[in-house]
Amino acid sequence: MRVLVVEDSPELAQLVKNGLKLAGFDSDHLASAIAAREALRNSRYAALILDLGLPDGDGLSILRELRQRKDSVPVLILTARGSVNDRIHGLRVGADDYLVKPFEFGELVARLEALLRRPGQILGRSLQLSNVTFDTEDRQVLIDDKLQLLSARELAILELLLRRKGNVVSKKHLEDQLFGLAGEVGSNAVEVYVHRLRKQLTNLGAQVKINTVRGVGYMMSASEG
Ligand code: CA
Asked: Is the pTM of this model over 0.70?
């Protein structure tokens, strides 16, 4: 699950990124409004942590644009602007939550998790298909109630496919979520990981299959036992 952090202080951004990592979130960091706009147009994120005072503009205008184009990505504003009026304004423009600096890291993570648990958002604690159960908080996979060890990438793909079981998940979406803006992704990296996951699941007796939809992506569904 990948979160975008838009923050112009490098120290704070690093702190937030490290903390998110410990809490089980991958993140990308951008320090300007222009880069954030570009990324939000081209990639899908599970959530956005948004600073308001950016060197080349105001975070609120980014938020306003998102909501104008009906992008409902959960947004948590993280800012030094702490007056009641600032908070009301931020929420009215379309933020889902508002946290004022300085803040406690535990509170940021708890608020982020709360946003992602809301109906329609993607953090459901337990995902299930056939004999496969994925606990998204403990990051554990059970097959026939037996704990199985998968690599971090395999877990990430399994989670994304399970969340949309029965629907096609585009290769681009998997790439974005797995590698983010890091960039050095070979064109077949996702294929390689999907192939490995498929093999693992077969070996472990999982009664699910990953169908390849040529030119589009992948879909997970139940297979006959
Ligand atoms: Ca700032």
From this structure: no
Mean pLDDT of the chain: 90
Q: Which two tokens stand for residue 87?
A: 């908070």
**Are 14 and 113 in a shared domain?**
yes
111 and 18 in one domain? yes
Domain of residue 96 covers: 2-117
**154 CA to middle of ligand 1, Å?**
36
What's the number of domains the chain is made of?
A: 2
* E strands in 25-71: 26-30, 47-50, 53-54, 57-58
Other beta carbons less than 10 A from residue 183's beta carbon: 6
- Report the separation in Å between the CA atom of 29 and the middle of ligand 1, taken as the mean of its atom positions: 13
Residues surrounding ion ligand 1 at CB below 5 Å:
8, 51, 53
Residues 67-112 pLDDT 10s: 998 888 999 999 999 999 999 999 999 999 999 999 999 999 999 9
- Report the separation in Å between the CA atom of 59 and the middle of ligand 1, taken as the mean of its atom positions: 9
CATH assignment of the domain containing 149: 1.10.10.10
Per-residue pLDDT of 89-98, as tens digits, reads 999 999 999 9
**Phi and psi (nearest 5°) for 43?**
-130, 155
